[in-house]
Structure formats: C-alpha cells, structure tokens
Design a protein that fits this description.
Elements: H1 8-12, E1 18-24, E2 27-32, E3 35-41, H2 47-56, E4 62-64, H3 77-97, E5 102-106, H4 113-125, E6 131-135, E7 137-138, E8 141-142, H5 149-158, E9 161-165, H6 180-199, H7 202-205, E10 210-213, H8 220-233, H9 235-238, E11 254-256, H10 262-272, E12 277-278, H11 294-299, H12 303-318, H13 320-326
Parallel strand pairs: 4-5, 5-6, 6-9, 9-10, 10-11, 11-12
Antiparallel strand pairs: 1-2, 2-3, 7-8
Helix pairs in contact: 3-4, 4-5
C-alpha cells in the first residue's frame, strides 16, 4: 500500500475507506473511515525495507498485491474505480522502480463489472501487470454469479491471472472471539469461492482462466471427499449448473503453499498436484510464513519438486511474458 493515501472518507462523505496516520517512525495507524483499525509497520509501504527483508530471507522476487481491506467493493462504483486506480498506479510504480525484485497484481472495482473490465484492460495493457487480486465474494455475491461472466471472458482472452484472497468472511460477526474469523472463517471462505467456481461451471465456460487461491486453498483440499460425496448423493442440489464431478477440477487451478504444516503440504501436493502449488508468504502479516518458502525448502527433498513450488509454478500461473522477464 502507498505511504500516503487520500482521505476518501472526507472527500466522499461516507464509508470505511482506509487512510494512514504516521504517528511515529516506521509505524502507521490504519484509519478506517474515522476510526482506528490497526497498526502496521513500514514494510507495508516502504519498498526498500521490503527488499532488505527479502534479502534476509532469500526471496528473489515478490508478487505485490493490495491488502484486501483496500478492495472497497462496498463503495459507489465510481469511487471504487477511483481508489482501485490509485492503488494500481502505486503498485505499478513500485514494480517499475524495482523491476527485478517485484511483480504486481492490481485490484478491480468488482461491484461494477463494466468498470472492472476497463480497469483490468488498463492493468494488463498500460500498467503491464500479469493480473489482479480479487476477493472470495463480492458483497456476498458468489464468484459464479453470471454477472461476472463478461469479466472472466475478458480475463481469459487477455491471459490475465487471477489471485483470490478471502475477505468479508461469512458468519464473521458470530465468531469474533479468539481470532476465529482468520483461523476458521478464512479457510471456509476460500473453499466457498472454489466450490462456487466449480459448481457454477466457470472452469468449463472459461477453461483457459488461470486462477490461484490463497492459504493452501483453505479448507477445500481437506474436504474434497465430502464435496464429491455431496455432489454424488444430491446432484439435484449440487449439479444444477455443472454436471461434472468436482474432483475432476483438481489440477485445474493453483493454490499457495501457506499451510504451516509439513503433512498438510504433502497432502495438498498429492490432492491438488505438484504443478499447481506456489509459495505463498502472506507477508508481512502475523499469519504469514516469516521466512517465505522455508517449509518447502526444508521439507521437500526432491530438487525438481522444490523448484516447481518455489518459483516455476508461480511463473506458469503469471504467464509466459512475465516468466521470461523474471527469469532473465
């Protein structure tokens, strides 16, 4: 995120837009609307600090994406577009300043599909990004909703990769104690998005769409047996829009390696496939892997498999043009 963000709450007169209050060196308060939200450190906005930490943890290239609280899907469409363009320009400028260390993903005003298509086209053609990051739901609308079909079509045609990150977790208001929205809600929210895309037939309608999901695919890999069984015993409920067994889509999308457990890493490699797991860091936040890729490096003994997970699979997901540049 940028170190200076316009006060859109004051400008637009409503909402939970984020701005920063730099109240002491190396730290800032995130202000949501006119209320304190959380405190963050300068590695959220200072590229030099990031590169220093990347060097310390042997990270060659980092893919930058907006913090989900910046999505602003709840805002009026024109305001969502204005904020998305601001964040996208910032990420593009950071990548341009350090092209061998960063790649960048944009954000879209997903509450308006036409505006999203135009901003996606700008991200790809003008800002030279490989793709965008979006949330697991858009104002409680599933990603399988036909409203988004035109966007998926354009993304497929342009070869844009899509990174899906949980946010606005369902049932969040009922599980606030114990950090449960992040520990329980996020994995479930990611499975919601994957199942929606599968049961909604999105991977059938747009077979070349390159989609990746955060946090090891959430609870989806561990529950694919239940999901498949439900499909088989209640096709009247599950197979309404797509008659194909959900297990057939394993290996059709990417997930990251952020599972924090060697047995879980083995499991997702087996279930999702060795070609579809990319290192995820969730940097620079507490639930991330503080030394990105360390679990992969220490647990996977096969060098070919390590290379796939550490960088080759991510390059496949981003696309040939960006892969060729980053491998120079």
């Amino acid at each position: 995120m940028p170190d200076k963000i316009p006060n859109w709450f004051q400008k637009f007169g409503y909402g939970n837009f984020i701005t920063l209050n730099h109240h002491k060196p190396c730290c800032a308060q995130m202000i949501k609307g006119d209320q304190f939200f959380r405190e963050i450190n300068h590695n959220c906005w200072d590229a030099g600090v990031r590169i220093g930490e990347m060097n310390d943890t042997e990270v060659s290239v980092q893919v930058l994406s907006p913090i989900p609280v910046l999505f602003n899907y709840w805002a009026k469409s024109e305001h969502g577009l204005e904020t998305a363009r601001f964040f996208n320009d910032h990420i593009a400028e950071t990548v341009s300043a350090y092209p061998t260390r960063f790649a960048g993903l944009g954000t879209l005003p997903m509450q308006d599909v036409d505006m999203s298509i135009k901003e996606l086209e700008r991200c790809i053609t003008v800002l030279k990004m490989p793709g965008v990051e979006i949330g697991t739901n858009i104002n409680n609308k599933n990603l399988s909703d036909p409203y988004f079909f035109p966007l998926w079509q354009v993304a497929e045609e342009m070869g844009a990769c899509i990174f899906i990150h949980p946010w606005e977790m369902m049932g969040m208001e009922h599980m606030l104690p114990y950090w449960l929205p992040w520990l329980v809600g996020m994995p479930a929210e990611t499975s919601r998005a994957i199942c929606s895309l599968i049961f909604g037939g999105i991977f059938e309608k747009f077979p070349k769409l390159r989609v990746a999901f955060a946090h090891g695919g959430g609870s989806f890999p561990a529950t694919i047996g239940r999901i498949e069984h439900g499909f088989n015993v209640r096709p009247d409920l599950c197979a309404v829009d797509n008659p194909i067994n959900p297990r057939k889509y394993l290996g059709k999308f990417w997930i990251d390696s952020l599972v924090h457990d060697p047995q879980a890493l083995d499991f997702v490699l087996q279930i999702i496939g060795a070609d579809k797991i990319c290192v995820g860091s969730d940097y620079p936040f507490p639930l991330g892997e503080h030394h990105p890729g360390k679990l992969v490096e220490e647990h996977l003994k096969n060098q070919e498999l390590r290379d796939k997970v550490l960088f080759k699979n991510a390059l496949d997901w981003m696309g040939k043009e960006h892969a060729e540049f980053l491998l120079k």
